[in-house]
């Protein structure tokens, strides 16, 4: 059981830290993936400011949750 919580904590940290530290890059990558099949070139896609902010707060929340699982 403790091994499972450790693994869940590491997974939350692996996905949460990049979103908290580099939210613009993570959001831009998501927008570029969404641009497949669109007429807009992937290089010209820019994320909205609200999306970057949401990614940052989601990353902070996931990181905090991962730390909580690691020390639980």
From TrEMBL:
Ranges of residues in domain DUF6199: 8-71
Keywords assigned by UniProt, alphabetized: Membrane, Transmembrane, Transmembrane helix
Origin: domain of life: Archaea
Transmembrane segments: 50-71
A Pfam family this chain is assigned to: DUF6199
Descriptive protein name: DUF6199 domain-containing protein
């Amino acid at each position: 059981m403790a091994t499972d919580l450790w693994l869940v904590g590491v997974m939350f940290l692996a996905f949460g830290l990049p979103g908290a530290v580099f939210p613009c890059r993570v959001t831009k990558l998501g927008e570029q993936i969404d641009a497949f099949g669109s007429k807009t070139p992937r290089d010209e896609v820019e994320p909205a400011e609200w999306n970057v902010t949401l990614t940052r707060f989601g990353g902070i929340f996931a990181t905090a949750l991962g730390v909580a699982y690691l020390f639980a």
